[in-house]
Design brief:
The chain is mainly beta and 217 residues long. The protein is built from three helices and 17 strands. Bound molecules: 2-oxoglutaric acid and manganese (II) ion.
């Protein structure tokens, strides 16, 4: 099923059952979204992501960066990363998303897809630090890309195109019951930056430079 909504019907839950994934459409003007994209392409210290999968060390084509309230250490896919502290632009976007969605976030994973040859395969977000029924707000800038959901049991699919400046909030049973992906799209020649705001459980993370007791190493 592919969805296309009149602005007046937004926000609206894209999932027919077992979760809430609210699509808000464009929350930033074209000019604002272009400005954010230019800023992120120029100033974020993008790095390829690394993971250990089936015992193999993988380096992704897509690049990533982590930001947060403090220099938290996160471990996922067998690798520990340290978050940088918010930039003014990320903080402004976070505040707008929190106002619209009514949730609060303490960290953000940024993804850079250089063009349509780069995507993200089927997965759900379930790192230990996220907790159950996590709330993830996803804001997109740049090239419009398709975003797919697939129910883990029924295999039903739901797809939506995410234009520049748009917001999607995944919450409730979404991660438990559905997977999501950004498929490759060979026609797309422009970059896309995606921000996923998350609320990490602080007990599962550590401020970089502190030991278990909170003392500075
Ligand atoms: O780029 C996107 O829209 C999705 C990103 C995502 O699923 C993730 O970072 O876990
Ligand atoms: Mn994800």
């Amino acid at each position: 099923m592919e969805l296309d909504f009149p602005e007046a019907d937004l926000p609206r839950n894209l999932l027919p059952y077992d979760g809430e994934s609210l699509y808000y459409g464009r929350i930033f003007s074209t000019a604002q979204a272009e400005e954010f994209l230019r800023c992120f392409l120029a100033s974020i210290p993008w790095q390829h992501d690394e993971a250990v999968m089936f015992g193999k060390h993988i380096v992704t084509a897509r690049k990533v960066a982590w930001y947060g309230d403090a220099r938290y250490d996160y471990t996922y896919s067998g690798k520990t990363r340290t978050a940088r502290v918010w930039t003014p632009e990320l903080l402004a976007i976070k505040q707008e998303v929190e106002r619209l969605g009514g949730s609060s976030y303490n960290s953000c994973l940024l993804n850079l897809y250089a063009d349509g040859s780069q995507g993200m395969g089927w997965h759900h977000d379930d790192e230990k630090g996220l907790g159950p029924d996590s709330d993830i707000a996803s804001v997109s800038f740049g090239a419009e890309r398709r975003f797919d959901f697939r129910h883990k049991l029924s295999k039903e699919k739901v797809s939506v195109f995410l234009p520049s400046g748009s917001l999607l909030i995944m919450r409730g049973r979404t991660q438990a019951c559905w997977q999501h992906q950004v498929p490759k799209a060979m026609r797309v020649t422009e970059p896309r930056v995606n921000l996923t705001f998350r609320r990490m459980l602080i007990a599962e993370t550590r401020i970089a430079g502190e030991d278990e007791s909170g003392a500075i190493r």
